[in-house]
Specification:
mainly alpha; about 95% helix; rod-shaped; RORA; transcription regulation
Length: about 40
């Protein structure tokens, strides 16, 4: 039963990290796009 709880929270952590990563890469991407646009 304890192992079930651990794996469940582990999955939730992974999901959270994946969403965080997507946001970070998206923000970085936008930042670079804006800089490229301004440099033209």
């Amino acid at each position: 039963h304890l192992a079930q709880n651990i794996s469940k929270s582990h999955l939730e952590t992974c999901q959270y990290l994946r969403e965080e990563l997507q946001q970070i890469t998206w923000q970085t991407f936008l930042q670079e796009e804006i800089e490229n646009y301004q440099n033209k």
